[in-house]
Each structure stands twice: as structure tokens, then as C-alpha cells.
Amino acid sequence: MPALAIIPQIRTPITIKPKIKHKQKQKPKSFSLSTTPITQASFSDPFVLQLAETLEDSLSPSVSLQRLRDSSSESLLSTSWPSRKDEPFRFTDTSFIRLSQIIPITKPPQFDYLPSINGDTLLPNIVIADGFVLNSMSRLSTLPDGVYVGSLLSDSSDRIAERVLEFVGDFEWGDLFWSINGIGAHDMTVVYVPAGVKVENPIHFKYVSVEGGEKGSKKLPVSNPRVFVVVEEGGEVGIIEEFVSKEGNDDRYYWANPVLEVVIGKGAKVRHSYVQSQSLNSAHIKWTAVRQEAASTYELVEVSTGGKLSRHNLHVQQLGPDTATELSTFHLSVGDQTQDLHSRLILDHPRGRSQQLHKCIVAHSQGQAVFDGNVKVNRYAQQTDAGQLTRSLLLEPRATVNVKPNLQIIADDVKCSHGAAISDLEETQLFYFQARGIDLETARKALVFSFGAESFHSSRCPFYKTTIRYKETHFLLISCNSSTSKTSSSTKPSQNLSESPNPKNPSSSDHLKPLSATTLTTKDHQAQLLSKPKSTRVNPTRPKRSVLSLQRLKRSLYPYNPQIKELKLFAKKLNDCGSGENEFVSLLETFPYPPTKENALLILNSLRAWQKTSFLQLGQDP
């Protein structure tokens, strides 16, 4: 019997003007794939389509990146611009980008800008300006044999290109911004480490944003740098990503939309440091996708302090047993900023281990921090050890933080834990400093600095410990000064930032003076030792927790009445008397207040044993 040929019938859609009647429901029509045309406009957001077309027109054709661009274009056809109604963006407002005039950057920066963005000369480094690799500013001569760092389109060998293209375009967890990068990336920077090769010094990627809109302008230049890291079996490498603005562009408007993909082979190790300190008027939305094979290790240390809108989408998937993942992140908001971290960790195999520590400080009344951490332990991930902890510090009355830790466990033989805490500085800790003669402002600085420094203290990279930590110390102490601005009326600093011509905006040298050089205040230290405030239990879930703390800090240093203060000082004089009873009795005759029972007990508790005996005997005499 001959096979039947089925020819689908495609009907021309007829535009019918809808008739809407009040309180009348229409019968739903049947849906047929063969008769209903599927158009792009029925699924897509017009703004997203226009943005995708603009990015496509700004690119030159590339055979190597065609698969990535095709998959990204297909994804954008069914994706709308995120809003606050979408669950992943419920606390993140992206209207700042949508309401701007987005302009793709089509060429590298001019030569006049190059001397101000030269890379670090101590480490293997590569400079990427506005998404374009600057070979003249990069230094890669010290890499071991077989290690390749460079462009996928220009100098990479066919073997490396084929290896990288095996993974390009098959990531299924990306969102709108992942697809925008895929369709707008001019090139792809590749890091390839062969099997068994260990790169001693970390490779420093310096991303510099040169183009930017002026203040008050709606122009928003966008760059889409993309980096792909492949570490074969037994290899080891360190990656440092540093995002900065060109000198003098600290107030420019631009949008950085980078993507980093990491593939870690069996038994390999990647140490990743990510530092973001871009303009406070910029948008920075980054994607990091990591795939770990069996017995591999991935370590991340992240510090994010810049950007008006900063969001990091972190996705880590363990694809083999005995895999280790360590994530340590720190976010700081010192202005009208939104610092957002969305992390997803998927464990699918036995004996996996993961530890995540996230800390954030909000030191501005309009600042906001968001943490959405998802750890999923699937059925076959037995004997897994997973931990997640997030701690947030609010230093201003209207500072906001939204925390959503999520631990999904399907396996039954696991050791998992997670926790979250949001608070202001503890008064008991502040009192601990004051009881040892340290003024209030210095105590707050020390506590805020130690809170943030804990998250990036574990970095083993020498460059990170010197250069980058210097920058983050600067931002941490700025947040300290912001937190003490409202309490400076009750406790004045002694050494000081008042020497700066502008106390509200002190210089870096003033910020980075060591805490040990701070002198004590000239106030009465006896009063400081007795200035412990009354303990008041405050529900941490109540709004404006910081307001209550500031009100308690504004109390006087000596909460007792003058009579009790004078009696305590008189008891101290009695206690300082020698062993002579006559001297003790003569001094006791100058009792400042009537010898009531309450006053006598207050004095008695501060005396020595023989003084108590004499005091009681004198009290029994008529």
C-alpha cells in the first residue's frame, strides 16, 4: 500500500475586530497546531525584539559564534523584559535599563584612553575594554606551555575551538540577559588549560568601561564581554575578574552585561575571584555558569560594591561524585544602589560538598540588597554535605534587604544546613569596646570592617590580598563613616577626618588610617566604663530595626541619676583608703547624702572586708 502523503493546510489569519460584552464569557476555541499560525509578535516583547535587532545589526558575521547567536535569538523570541511581577525579579527593578536609550558599542576605545587603563604587570593579564580585547595592553608571555588565553576568532587553534564549541549554546538555565549577551558579543575570550597543567599565578581579567552617557542623559552604552574557561583533567588555574570604570568615569551611565562559563574537568581545580567596583550610575548584570566533573573543586570569592543596579546570576552544577564547591560573597551598598545575588547550586552525585557564605552591608537609607540562594540536593546525591549561611548588616533606618535562602533536599542520607540573619550592630559588642576605653565611632568601624572582611579573608591570591583588598577596605570604611554620621553628635571622634577639607567626603588616606592609631577621647573614662545601656529585647523581624538602635545609642553615657554617680565615686574614695581605720572613719564622716538603707547598701558593696566591718559597726552605734 503506498504511503499517504499528508500536506498541512496553512490558513491565512483573518483579522476580526473583537466584540466585548459586559459580563458575557465567550466559548474558548479549539487549538490546532496545523491551522493556527505562530508568529513572533504573539510571544515576544516589542522592546526585546527591537533590542535584539539593534545588537544583530551592530555585529559582523562569525561562523564560530553563529550557533550561540542562533540559540540566543530563538530564546529572545519567547522572552519578555523582566518586571517586578516575575518571581526572579520580584525585588529587583530593571526599569532603569528599559527606560534608557540602549546603544551598542561597535568599536574599541580610542587610543587616547589606552594609557589610563593599562593592566597589572605582575600577573598574566588581559585587558577587555567595552567588550573588546586589547592585545597591546595585555601580558600573557609568562603562561606555561600549552595554556591558551585569547580570542576564539583570531589566534585559537582548531582543536581548542572545537573543544570550546562543544559546550557553547547548550546552557538551558539562562535568562533574558544571558541571551542578550549571546546575541551581542563581538568575540569570545577563551582560557584553555591542558590536562595535568597547573598555572601558578592567577590570570587577571581587567574589564574597563570607557564609553558612558553624561549625567542627565538617557543614553546607555552596552557591552557584552564573554569569557569561556576550560580546564582539562587534573589542571589548575586561578581567575581574577575585575570590573572598573575608566579614570574620571565614576559618574557615567553605561550597562555591562558580561558572561563567564567555566568547565572543570575531572580532578581539576579553579580558584575564581570576582571584584565589581564600577560607576555608581551604571548597570552591571553578570552571569557565571560552572560545570564540575567528578572530584573537581571550584572556589569563588566575590566582592561587589559598585553599580546603581548590580546583579550576579551564579549557577553551579556538580556533574560527578566527590565534588567540592566553596562560595564566599560580599556585597556593599553605600548609596542608592541595588546589590543582588541569585545563586543556584545543583548536586546530582554522591559525596558532594558545598559551602556558601554570603554577607552584605547596606549603609544608605535608599540602599537595597537581595539574596536568593537555591541549593538542590537530588535523589542520587547521597552523603552530601551542604551548608548555606547569609548575614546582612543594616546601618541606616530605611535600608532594605530581602533574603530568600532555599534548600531543596530529595536524598535521604545528607548533612545539610542553612541560616539567615539580618540585624544592626550589637550593643553588647559596642559596649565591649567602650568598656576598654575605645570610643563609639572606632568601635563601629572595627565591627563593620571585620563583618565584611570575613567573606574575602579566605582568598589565597597574593594580588587579591594586596591590591583588591586595599580597594575594598576603602569602601568598607566609607560605610563605617556613613553608619556613624548620625551618632557623631553624641560621641565625637578624636583623631579625625575633620582635617580633611570636606568631612563628608574624606580622602582615601584618611579612610585607610589604621584603627590602632586612633586615640582615646577626652571624656571621663570612668563614665565610659559605667555606661552600659539597659538591655531591651527587640524583635529582629520588626521593620526599622536600625531606628531603635540609633535611639538607644543616643542615650547619655551615664544613665544613672547624679546621686548614684556621686555615691559610687565616694565609695571608690573609701576603697582607696589605706589600712588606717582613723583615715577611713574621718573620710566616712563626709558622707554626701543622708545614710539611708539604699545609700548604705550601695556604699557597702564597694568596700573591702575590714572596711565593711568598720562601716557596720559605725552604723550600729547610736
TrEMBL record:
Coiled coil: none annotated. Residues 126-204 form the SUF system FeS cluster assembly SufBD N-terminal domain. One of its GO terms (biological process) is iron-sulfur cluster assembly. Residues 221-451 form the SUF system FeS cluster assembly SufBD core domain. Residues 482-545 are annotated as: Disordered. Residues 482-509 have a biased composition (Low complexity). Pfam families: SUFBD_core (PF01458), SufBD_N (PF19295). NCBIfam families: sufD (TIGR01981). This is NON-INTRINSIC ABC protein 6. It comes from Populus alba (White poplar).
